Amino acid sequence: MNAPITVRDISAAEHLAWLRTQPSASFLQTPAWGRVKQDWRAESIGWFEGEEQVGAALVLHRALPRIGRTLAYLPEGPCLDWSSPRLVEHLRALRDHLKDKKAFALRMGPPVPTHRWQTATIKAAIADPAIHRYDEATPDVVEPVGTAVVDLLRRLGFRHLASDEGFSAGQPEYVFQVPLAGRTEEDLLKGMNQLWRRNIKKTAKNGVTVRVGDAADVPTFHKVYVETAERDGFTPRGLEYFERMYAEMSEEDPDRIRVYLAEHDGDVLAATIWIRVGEHAWYSYGASTAAKRELQGSTAVQWQMMRDALAAGATVYDLRGITNTVDEQSRQFGLIRFKVGTGGEAVRLAGEWDLPLNRLLYKAFDLYMKRR
């Protein structure tokens, strides 16, 4: 007879200890991330089959004004065995736990891939005038676990949140990843396109250097990031946010987060934030200056982060979100062209899903979000 499945609160220390038994987990599911997101109330929960812990999650709660009911959000979580034959029981236990916590809705983003498109397939899609999105092309890999999870969520009444271009309400549904398992630096270079390889050589020839900074370099990163935001037309986060991110994640694990700076003759050309949890490394934030762009500081820093991820034992280097468009007129096209040059693959994740727990409040919340 199977042991009963329960969900209960756990301490941050218990949460982190369990994550350390796993090959990897999203950095958005670490206890430290809950301390970064100060505008949400954070809690750690665990799944148990009998007394054996089989899962964990960071839950971020945002309360509705005056009502006190919350949206319970599990970004890129929970961290569970998504192939478990008891997955329905796991999800129902989560639902019941959050209902008891007065949540009016559950939002989560299962960190499981559903489809993969390799570089050659994306390039062919870009060259084909009949294709406007690369997910209109036949994927190279269809992941059985991920597609089964999506089917199950629909059957259980969850609502999918993705927009037409693949960017959901919170975290990206389409990401670009470079597989690292079993590869050498030479293998990575061979997988890149000619432009990337040429630019990597150019950075070394021109004397561009890349160093790993520390907390004192976060303001330098932020200065470059604000310049990038003004140039590209997005609203930047404040310096305090990045200082808190660096402090909290470093305290949780000394090698959880790094600041990288590409420099030339004392000038900062590019600055980035790199994060790693177990075997998964992310290029989380990136920025570059307008000066000396011909020296390819962004290429130099990407190559160094990729090499360092490989040296740290990561099996995936994740360049985070991309759109699914291959339309050269799209503002997002340059982003995917840059990332495709690394020789990695576009990965579609299960995406973000809502489960209403109080239908009346959820409907009101949904209308409010659509009118913003």
TrEMBL record:
* Single annotated GO MF: aminoacyltransferase activity
Tell me the Pfam families matching this sequence.
Answer: FemAB
Q: Name one GO biological process term.
A: cell wall organization
SUPFAM superfamilies according to UniProt? Acyl-CoA N-acyltransferases (Nat)
Question: Which keywords does this Swiss-Prot/TrEMBL entry list?
Answer: Acyltransferase, Cell shape, Cell wall biogenesis/degradation, Peptidoglycan synthesis, Transferase
The record's Gene3D superfamilies line, in alphabetical order, gives: 3.40.630.30
Tell me which family the UniProt entry assigns to this protein: Belongs to the FemABX family.
Q: What is this protein called?
A: Peptidoglycan bridge formation protein FemAB
